[in-house]
Amino acid sequence: xxxxxxxxxxxxxxxxxxxxxxxxxxxxxxxxxxxxxxxxxxxxxxxxxxxxxxxxxxxxxxxxxxxxx
Length: 69
Hints:
The protein is mainly alpha-helical. It has helices at residues 18-36, 40-51, 56-65.
């Protein structure tokens, strides 16, 4: 696997305290790193399944997952 920098954009509600928001971002980064290590077909299935969830938070995550080639 070739390392590649991707500038992910995470949107968090402004009412979330900064320290907690940073924890959320760290967890999302970890999840995306694990996701990026998966085989492309598995990634496609995960994105397809998560795309069906209509919450703004999940759509934000899906948008970032789609940035991984």
